[in-house]
Amino acid sequence: MPEKYFSxxxxxDLRADCQRLGVDLTFEExxxxxxxxxxxxNRTIGNAIGIHPMExxxxxxxxxxxELTYRRWERFGAGGAKLIWGEATAVIPEGLANPRQLLxxxxxxxxxxxxxxxxxxxxxENFGRDDDLLIGxxxxxxxxxSYRKPLITYHHAQADKLTYLDKKNGVKLPADYPVVxxxxxxxxxxxxxxxxxxxxxxxxxxxxxxxxxxxxLNELLGARTREGKYGGSFENRTRFIRNVLGKIRSExxxxxxxxxxxxxxxxxPYEKDMATGVGKALPFDTPYQYSxxxxxxxxxxxxxxxxxxxxxxxxxxxxxxxxxxxGSPYYxxxxxxxxxxxxxxxxxxxxxxxxxxxxxxxxxxxxxxxxPGLVVVGTGYSWLRQYLVNAGESNIRRKRVTIVATGRGAxxxxxxxxxxxxxxxxxxxxxxxxxxxxxxxxxxxxxxLGQFPAGCVPRDLIYAEILKETLGKKKRSxxxxxxxxx
Length: 486
Ligand SMILES: Cc1cc2nc3c(=O)[nH]c(=O)nc-3n(C[C@H](O)[C@H](O)[C@H](O)COP(=O)(O)O)c2cc1C
Fold this sequence. Notes:
This protein has helices spanning about 10-20, 65-75, 110-125, 155-160, 180-200, 215-220, 235, 240-250, 305-315, 335, 355-370, 390-395, 410, 415-420, 435-445, 460-470; strands at about 40, 45, 50, 85-90, 100-105, 135-140, 165, 170, 205-210, 255-265, 270, 280, 295, 300, 320-325, 375-380, 405. By secondary structure, it is an alpha/beta fold. The strands form five sheets. An eight-stranded parallel beta barrel has the order 3-4-6-9-10-15-16-17, surrounded by five helices. Strands 1-2 form a two-stranded antiparallel sheet. Mean pLDDT is about 95; it is low at about 480-485. Bound molecules: flavin mononucleotide (FMN). The site of flavin mononucleotide has 26 residues, from strand 4, helix 13 and helix 15.
């Protein structure tokens, strides 16, 4: 494995490496399509650049936005992207992924409303208008990865091996651990519907029913081995999302834009090979019985038949925008977010990051080709650093995606959209370098709150200080955050 994957001095160096690896990544030098407006439902946004949901694990312990949450959203608002996809927000306390995730309930409404207003105001102050900006919120239940206890929809032979009942004491999920009942899922459907109504009242333009990254609704899509009305057939596995969308439609009509971030390919669980440090797939049998979007005869590859069927079904139920993602941040992180250095709970990637990016672009391109009129948001751009906009421009021109968005790229460089539009390029000194410190912070639980905030260590001083604190090197300074504002 090379010590350094990203060593390109020019776009042509990168092009040459793509050719060497045989991946279908193309780049445009002149940016144009990225600044074109895009119609989403009954709204039009001012450019084709977005910001993916990026949790900062910095809410108060009762799930309200806190100082760093406001700061992050405000920076996103001021950054120029016209699609801001608000981060994972739990619809119920037991579905929180960590103690500092946002929680949508009655008490937290005024604070979440303030968050939207602040983001809008920041945008308006910088760009003179905000009627062409769309802000959404991602609604989630963390399922197997709920921090209080795993809430699983079925036993997944490989994922179970890597799921902890009690991480501190190294206790894994027992074979007889109960799965959530059909009654539980029925009640959860109603909670999602209630949550969507709240999102609407708060002034968000769109809502995302999260079905990605192996959290509960995503897991359900692969629940072939589950008994009862939510498991087995495609019809049963999609019952939850169909019911939720159907109920939202009948209660809210078209008053809020419906969206979903969807795993088009879950992949299968990987673990670190202790001898080499490289990620290796856990042994599996075929036909593979688990996960969504996998080729059952070779789950290391995608099979998009069901994801495409699901998207069609969601469109019929009013979904106007899908954000295509893949993989699990817990058990195959190289798939979802190609990286340069592994996070603390990770492994050396078993493939060149460009192969992972190629998988993202290929799968997203297939979805876009199946639904040319659908707004498809693409993922997997950040590792490309300053060249991500050149790849995004090319993907839009090739009709492989509608909106190009970044996650890690945006916490490193919140105003990357502004630079793409006004300068026609990104500044290399500001881009994400994919060294996984944001994930390391996310995984750091050793403080009195049980969770450290996550952000960009190389590009944002506040988080460099927090990283030191996680390593026991420094106490966090009590200085007001406003001093660090740009
Ligand atoms: C710190 C951190 C927080 C994230 N939070 C969310 C989230 O709230 N919801 C979500 O769907 N994805 C989340 N992701 C995944 C990103 O949105 C994105 O899919 C991933 O980083 C790959 O895109 P990129 O290459 O542009 O970073 C998170 C990733 C990181 C590293």
